[in-house]
Amino acid sequence: MARRRLFVLGSLFLCLALAFAVTVLRANREDEIIKYTLYIGLNDQDTYRQEIESEEAEEIVTEIILRYADGFTRMWAKGAYKDGEGVVTFENTLIYEFLYTSDEQVNGIMDEVLLALNQSSILVETKRVDSKFYGGVQP
Is domain 33-129 given the CATH code 3.30.70.120 in the classification? Predict the structure, then answer.
């Protein structure tokens, strides 16, 4: 009888511990969102050369993005890739990061940018991150 009581109490404790753990995990995930990073090379897909000046491409992409998203972080980079024949191509690359956006918004951005810059593809990286706005200490 004592064994049975101990087993029941142990099982009850385990169930409560699991319920608590699930609650804590869910609470910690409230700030977790998906961060999207787009890598947009500027070489034309047909000529393998940059046909649109960097500043103009930046303006085009920024205008498209602001139709879909409320904000972004933009950076410049130099990228390189090897084609199917092993030829290395270097290109200027625009990098945009987004928080608080959806797959649909990002896909809409990429669809328009592909056409506007005559690109064959855009690399998109997704990562789960914790994010929040900090407003400082309130008096």
Answer: yes
